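Quick one: structure tokens for this chain, please?
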Amino acid sequence: MQSSARNVFNESQSLADSAFAAACNGRSPGPVFAASAEITWVAPAFVGDTLVADAVEHTRYGRNGVTDVTVSRQGDGALLALFRGRSVEVSRPPAPRPTNGGPR
């Protein structure tokens, strides 16, 4: 039974992390990676529950961002976990070459 409970927690963390990655990478032309993340479980999930994640990017500054993800149970909407991730964009596409004879 402990194995099943552990798997439900791992699945809710994986779901939150995937929602975080989708929210971060959907906003940027370059790859974005997690700089840090924290999850707090506030209620139990059970084997057979359908989990739903909702990610909201709260702020973006320079190459950095802060995104919150909530994980809830689909049936009753109960909040199960809160996830906060900090992201960083590691590269950007090269700037276009100047066409006005400027530096190369």
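The chain has one domain: 2-89.
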